[in-house]
Amino acid sequence: MTTESMLRDIAAEQSCTREQTGKDALDVRVLQAMANVPRHEFVPEESRSLAYHNGPLPIGCGQTISQPYIVALMTDLLDPQPGDVILEIGTGSGYQAAILSQLVKQVYSVEIVAALAQQSTERLQRLGYKNVTVRHADGYQGWPEHAPYDGIIVTAAAPHIPAPLLAQLKPGARMVIPVGMPHAYQELIVVEKDADNNINTRSLIGVAFVPLTGNH
């Protein structure tokens, strides 16, 4: 599998899900970021032959790197802009943060598993992603020191939309988050906060993510 085959698979799956997502195509900026980031650098050595396969892969510590199509879709739904400061919950291997780093000014990423936080920090630094900062903490609580954010992306399924994250979302901004219980139906939700701090949500497609852990 290659980057080109991964992009073809993303386009094919987008075509199949366009009625649910409301999108005929993904933003070319997002697809270019997907092309630029070497996904094989973010998976374990033993999985590198599958790095560009359109599916999730284990990364250790009971966690996974998400399916490329889902990474692309969630990034597109966030609608990141060059001057944005984005909060990511669930750094994992650092792949989603690396994609976002191509599109925004700064990414703050929170990872609850200490080993993954350390590994992703080292990996992102080695690969030259200088506008990503990783913190080992409980992502349910967000990262209030840098709030409010121009967008928030959550890469683990929460049982509900975390109130601390809503509070840290800038008016006019979006959060993309999978919601649902482990081993049960989960849905990908886009949360929008309007200028008056009213919250609107819409559900798009069914997904399967590892659970958001922590003290919630």
Total strand segments: 9
SSE order, as H and E?
Answer: HHEEHEHEHEEHEEE
Question: How many domains, as an integer?
Answer: 1
| Largest sheet features | 7 strands, mixed
Strand content: 25-35%
Q: Helical segment tally?
A: 6
Report, as a whole number of angstroms, the end-to-end distance.
Answer: 39 Å
Helix share bin: 25-40%
CATH class: Alpha Beta
Name the structural class: alpha/beta
**CATH level-3 fold name:** Rossmann fold
The CATH architecture comes to 3-Layer(aba) Sandwich
Rounded Rg: 16 Å
The CATH homology group name = Vaccinia Virus protein VP39
Shape: globular
Residue windows where pLDDT falls under 50 for at least 5 positions: none
In the sheet with the most strands, the strands line up as: 5-4-3-6-7-8-9
What is the strand and helix layout of this fold?
Blueprint: H1 3-21, H2 28-36, E1 57-60, E2 63-65, H3 68-78, E3 85-89, H4 95-101, E4 106-111, H5 114-126, E5 132-136, E6 149-154, H6 163-167, E7 169-180, E8 186-193, E9 199-207
Parallel strand pairs: 3-4, 3-6, 4-5, 6-7
Antiparallel strand pairs: 1-2, 7-8, 8-9
Helix pairs in contact: 1-3
